[in-house]
Amino acid sequence: MKGLTVIAFLGFVSVVAGDWRCLALGGNCQYTFARYCSGSYRRNLCRGSYSRRCCLSNSSGSCSESAAACRILALHNSGDIFLRNRHPSGVNDGAFPLLNIRDACNGREAKRSSYSCGECSSGSAPGGSVCIDNRVLSYIEAISELHSVTITSIAGACHGCNSKHYLGRAVDVRRNGPYPSYVTKCNQLGGRGIDERTHIHCQF
Fold first, then answer.
1. Of 79, 153, 155, 169, which is the most exposed, with the fewest CB atoms less than 10 Å away?
2. C-beta of residue 49 within 8 angstroms of C-beta of residue 32
């Protein structure tokens, strides 16, 4: 309805009738003091105070598997699973599982990390972005029916130099709950499940 201002809070992200310019660009209006932006902020695209700005992802490509990602995001928002919003390393680069899935839900490529670590002795994570493979998304949905899982890494963080994570074809899950079944489910879906002792790795 024209002139109506509707606010629906999800954490500190809010949608207001005057935010259409930001939404049209695929962004989210949010308070800069309350949330991390996976890309960059632009002013004058959101209604309200100066601290409400449009967060636009730096992911440039488009991907087709958005419906599954949106279902996973809904599971996170309802508390059925947890998508981490930080890396085990503590590096703050916006390539966290929550932001990876949010980008995928919006039809965009998920951001990859670009920092150096011991896992890749010859260089660093590649940076850039990648589409998340639908098999990874299907796996996350499948194990969400087994337990309230925590997703610790998808396309981001630093892994082995040739890791499937950088191809959008792997996911790491916290090693808790009935974690042997996470390995089994990965194998059943045609992937390779590995118990890494600190987490369960599933790749396709």
1. 79
2. no
b/e map of 110-142 (b: 16 or more CB within 10 Å)? bbbbbbebeebeeeebbebbbbbbbbbbbbbee
Beta bridge partners, 15, equal 8
Distance CA 183, CA 195 (A): 7
Q: Which of 15, 26, 30 is nearest to 5 (CA)?
A: 15
Q: Which residues pair with 108 in a beta bridge?
A: 62
C-beta atoms surrounding 192 within 10 Å:
13
Find out whether 73 and 101 touch, Cβ atoms under 8 Å: yes
User: What element of type H or E holds 129?
Assistant: strand 129-130
- Residue 32 backbone zone (phi > 0: left; psi -120 to 50: alpha; other: beta): alpha
76-106 pLDDT per residue, tens: 999 999 999 987 777 777 889 999 999 999 9
What does the alpha-carbon distance between residue 55 and residue 44 come to, in Å, rounded to a whole number?
Answer: 12
Q: Which two tokens stand for residue 42?
A: 């632009």
Contact of 70 with 105, CB cutoff 8 Å = yes
CB 58 within 8 A of CB 39: yes
Q: How far apart are CA 43 and CA 178, in angstroms?
A: 46
Question: What Rg do the C-alpha atoms of the chain give, in angstroms?
Answer: 17
- Distance, in Å, from the CA atom of 193 to the CA atom of 187, rounded to the nearest integer, reads 6
Q: What sign does the dihedral 84-174-161-194 (CA atoms) show?
A: negative
